[in-house]
Amino acid sequence: MLQANKIGVHGKETSNPHTAITGATGNGKSFLTKLLFTYHSLLKAKVLYVDPKAEMRTQYLSVLADLEEKGESEELQEYIRSIRFITLDMRKEENRGVLDPFSFLEDEGELTELATVLVASVLDKDTYIKIKPYLLDSLDKVIECRKAGKKVGMLQVFDELEKSSKEEVSTAGYLLKRISKNSLLSLCFADGSQEVLKTDDKTIIVEITGLDMPEGTDKDEMTETQLRSLTVMYALTYFCAIFGEREKDKETMLYLDEAWQIMSTPAGRQVVNRVKRTGRSFNNFLVLITQSVKDLKTSDDTTGFGTVFAFPENTETEAILEHLRVENDDASRAWLENQTMGQCIYYDTFGRKERITVDGTIFPEFLPLFETVKSDLVSVQ
């Protein structure tokens, strides 16, 4: 996959670095995804995995505890310990502020852009327009404090707003501080005292929990929790974009599991499209995982995917064949629909479209990491 954007590779038909993994649940999509993630995280590439199902951290740490107890596989233990796990759960104090713009952005322009967007997302439009000049001034002051070596975050920005002699600005500052306390917004707005999320961590798994993503785009129909969930998701997707744009000469990989959750929001689509457009020049490889092949296209982006793993989804046979540019006839439909568990159509950067079987790993000790189904029932054979 990492050769996708490289030049001089004989026979390669595309330099598109991005990969899509699609198909119904239960056919092997998750196993393949985690297999690819694990293999690539062992290389020199930096890898970020967004886990909306919040299953990987628990499974990985469970395997680690078991290995430690048995005194087995020191190499695998060390690998698991090397992963930075982040949980977007405001109930855990150590995660508060993990997506604060001051926690992962050094560039002042990027920091100001994200900070203003986040504030705009939680205030009504009229209030935001009135306080924006004062917000920018407050950001400048707090940025200067950071340059002086102080630990700062968005709460210090709100403190500055609250000091304003203008009542509407002061009230907005107090409101922003108040709604950030013990809420989802505490993930984005903090005081800088917590351990920060760094884009130079080699392997990061971010799990999402407690978010209530809206289905529509009309803010008037959204609950406060949904509006705050959008704010958190925008901060996360912005971090994902920045993660892949730091060093152009080093490969980075971004795995977006259950991508429909991000692609369902305008802000999410905007950042994903940004990653797709800049991927080749920044050596950033997007791996997008979703059930529906229809999630791979948006009206405001024509960038496709150079590599596709298409697991069967019988309600979308025609759409899958169209996406793979395969003739829609009886033979093609049977070729796609008659696959067994673990089989998918693999479309690679050389233009080949073949049915393959994903069967295990060359490192059997990795297999427990990929288990996602928990049950107290005992199988009967």
From TrEMBL:
It holds the Pfam family AAA_10. Residues 59-137 form the DED domain. Residues 1-23 are annotated as: Disordered. Gene3D superfamilies: P-loop containing nucleotide triphosphate hydrolases (3.40.50.300). It comes from the Bacteria. InterPro entries: DED_dom, P-loop_NTPase, T4SS_component. This is DED domain-containing protein. It comes from Streptococcus infantis SK1076. The lineage of its organism: Bacteria, Bacillati, Bacillota, Bacilli, Lactobacillales.
